Amino acid sequence: MSAAAPPGGERTRPRFAPKEPVDLAPPKFDVIPDEYLSKCTGHNEGYPILVGIRGLIFDVTHNPVYAVGKGYNVFAGADASKALAKSSLEKADVSADISELDESEIRTLDEWLQFFRYRYNVVGMTEKDAGNRKQGVLGDDVHIPNIP
Questions:
Q1: pLDDT at 137 (0 to 100)
Q2: What are the beta bridge partners of residue 125?
Q3: With helix as H, strand as E and coil as C, how does 84-135 read?
Q4: How far apart are alpha carbons 15 and 1 in whole angstroms?
Q5: CA-angle at 58, arms to 56 and 63, nearest 5°
Q6: 80-101 b/e with 16+ CB inside 10 Å = b?
Q7: How far apart are CA 66 and CA 108, in angstroms?
Q8: What SS3 state is found at 142?
Q9: In the beta sheet, which residues pair with residue 50?
Q10: What's the confidence (pLDDT) of residue 20?
Q11: Residues 85, 88, 94, CA angle at the centre, nearest 5°?
């Protein structure tokens, strides 16, 4: 997922950045109720397709890999942190609970978070995490920078 380094060894773009920049709206940190989020799977007309990671909610509606019947649709309508950390497409792993993940899985999750941050609009945050978060910060150790 990282950019290839030119002969001088310097990266041509930040790690996980897409080849072509994506025009993203400023992030929103409004609370998205769990009941609403659970309807954002692509199965309910009039609702976007949303995926949560570490409490942030991303709008993935325009990427066909998240559409109904596609492999990544399993992540839609929930905080899929555990499944992403484990690189799992199993519905049983779609959960916000990351308490049992090892260090390697946490790194993988943080890489997914950065990947999403470059590609999808942040449209809100989960109810569970709203009380524990500040704008732009995901806990004490993970910061989401503003990406130009």
A1: 46
A2: 31, 56
A3: HHCCCCCHHHCCCCCCCCCHHHHHHHHHHHHHHHHHCEEEEEEHHHHCCCEC
A4: 7
A5: 155
A6: bbbbbbbeeeeeebbebebeeb
A7: 20
A8: strand
A9: 59
A10: 84
A11: 75
pLDDT digits (tens, 9 = 90+) for 35-45: 999 999 999 99
- 136, pLDDT greater than 80: no
Predicted confidence at residue 147, as pLDDT, reads: 39
Token pair of 116, please?
Answer: 């999403």
Tokens linked to 67? 């559409």
Per-chain mean pLDDT for the chain:
85
Closest CA relative to residue 80, chosen from 145, 126, 31: 126
Number of H helices, E strands in the chain: 4, 7
What six digits make up the tokens of 126?
């989960």
Is residue 49 a contact partner of residue 60, using CB atoms and an 8 Å limit? yes
Closest CA to 38 of 50, 27, 30, 29: 50
pLDDT in tens, 102-128: 999 999 999 999 999 999 999 999 988
* Displacement of CA 118 from its chain's centroid (Å): 10
